[in-house]
Amino acid sequence: MTIVFSNYDSPGNPWYDGGGARAIHAVARRLAVRHEVRVVTGAFPGGSDRRVDGVQYMRVGSRRAGPKLGQVLFQFALPRAVRRLAFDVWVESLTPPFSTACLQRFTRRPVVALTQVLAGRGMSAKYHLPFAAVERWGLRSYRRAIATSAHLEEELRTINPRLQTCVIPNGVEGELVRQPVERDERHLLFMGRIDIAQKGVDLLLEALAVTPEIALPLVIAGAGVPRDEARVRQRVRELGLEARVRLVGRADGAARLRLFREACLLALPSRFEASPLVIAEAFCFGLPVVHFDIPELRGYPAEACCKVRAFEAPAYGGALRRLLEDAPARAAMGRAAKAAAAAYDWDHLARRYEEFLLAVRGGQAG
To answer: Would you say domain 175-343 falls under CATH 3.40.50.2000?
Structure first.
């Protein structure tokens, strides 16, 4: 079977290189053991067509357009790609700002929508353009979809009740799931894209500012577009948090593992989310997760997560403080997190992808 994934982001993208791109590669390289797999991504400076871990990467769009315009140009380039490439099943990862490129309208072969996040409402609110309406119209053209959470599946089926759907969360490597927990609690950890609108880094800083009792430093690990990074640094200065916050940039490999091992909890103050890889990673290290009570994250176990009233920075700061002060509760949540990690092994999740895509090719799904 020949499988094509399309997603604007990809490993090595200088502007994003996010969890969704890593998730697609994790699935694609496992499927490539038994199938021909291509990943069509957005072009970027220095990016070239190449084979990685048995997966053929193909860049489309403009290398000079930058991250925002680049996403738009990528979506306009996809219909030509779907007509030109030979495939049995195409998996279209929905990309902001429109979410869908309506690829099923350009081919008779099956296209599966893959939802990391539905961005239409957020993009409409941000830019005052009808992105949400375009998203709804586009999603009605599909027959099949993979959702990374039950909440996203519900949203998809509300828009298009005829969809045949499958829920498969993002995962982590099996070695990480099985490793013993070794922690040296030195800091609070935020790990992810530096993003104000979605990731809520500004709310986390405000929460820290109103809880001076928290003595441990906050480590912010990740990168984003220069404007968001500059806004975060400016906010740290405005709130007088220079001595309590460390921005360490993107963390990969051994540096990423060390930051998890030295954390006492993961702070995830997102305003909206999909199926964030960082939660599964934190579970592997036995880390409790503190997040806002938003619909996208309600499927994660309450025994391992502290869920705070949405977007109330003082309440979030209080939750951090209480968890830091209560070592037994923190340890119990850590044990529950480690137990929950077993559900996120990529080897198991990739088999579920394969089963669904084989059914799609055979006409049994949808």
So the answer is: yes
